[in-house]
Amino acid sequence: MKHRIVILGAGYAGLLAAGRLGRRLHGDDVTVTLVNAEPDFVERVRLHQLAAGQHLPARPLVRILAGTGVALRVAHVTGVDVERRVVAVTATDGAGTEELSYDTLVHALGSAPADPGVPGVAEHADELASRPGALRLRERLAGLGAGGRVVVVGGGLTGIEAVTEIAEARPDLDVALAARGGLGDWLSDAGRRHLRRALVRLGVTVHERTDVAAVRAGAVETRDGAVLPADVTVWATGFATHPLAAAAGLEVTAQGRIVVDGTMRSVSHPDVYAVGDAAQAEGPLGNPLRMSCASGGPMAWQAADAIVARLTGGRLPHMPLGYVHQCISLGRRDAVIQLVTPDDRARSAAPGGRAAAWYKELICASAVFLAAHPAPVPVRRRRLVAAASPAVARP
């Protein structure tokens, strides 16, 4: 009987893990199934560009997975039973619900906008964490005439990239950013200076240390009683993990992220691995890795290579999971590259400008390339060792 590997989610981490497993394990010994709610790969780091009216090419998963041996199932994941080792999925075309059995599961369902508990957000704010959300925001922005007012709530990477992209694409709009803390307060002095200059150049009004109390049609209300007029409100204050992990009984953090060891294997259920935003892994100094593409890629490589090693009797990988920089786009012609320590603390250097924008574009393109080519050079597909049969491959 073949060893059954099921991967949930085809974001950067899930797609990379699936492709690497498919290319490194022999098809006579394993089946690799990738479950995703959409038929296309979504470049999540570019959704602010999509919302601002730019065209992003379609990237069908069947084309990306061609030749890997990975089977694609376009369906919603509705449940995970870690005791029976089955995943419940519902076909997106309404064909019904079924169960997929697994011997090894890779949980890569990622994250969604966090529920802030702020009145009016669900009814009156748009989000950028999903392709449908970005498309809805795109339509709303396209319907605004000159002088329309846009408020982006959230001073993190998503909020900054969204507000600068919108302001550059639509200079006829009145665009503002509301940040709970100081603008770019995690950046170095050089990084903050460049960020402020960019926002001034783009005409963005910045409301720092502003805590939003409610969102209503036509306005954002702050806790200090101020009212920010808003024909469109973009909510970009953070992300939350998929609730299925906690519901399945996996050990998770208070934020719902699956607790994993250094090989990305669940500390409570050794048949389950987790990568990307779904997992809580540690960096080189014990620091928790942040939700980001920069974390998801190395985590996926680590998990895939660990699964291959355990199934084929190879050596477990020991890839350091550290950081080099944070790349923040500020429209299409500007960016800031904040250099950081391996545990993600800002260094003094933060180059910016057109060269930085070119570099950020290279990083985004590389992320897509690596997701589609997880083994960029030919590799030998390995056979499973006898002890790695489904019945006993659960150490």
From TrEMBL:
GO terms for biological process: aerobic electron transport chain. InterPro entries: FAD/NAD-bd_sf, FAD/NAD-binding_dom, NADH-Q_oxidoreductase. GO terms for molecular function: NAD(P)H dehydrogenase (quinone) activity. Residues 4-304 form the FAD/NAD(P)-binding domain. It comes from the Bacteria. Its cofactor is FAD. Keywords: FAD, Flavoprotein, Oxidoreductase. Belongs to the NADH dehydrogenase family. This is Oxidoreductase. It comes from Promicromonospora citrea.
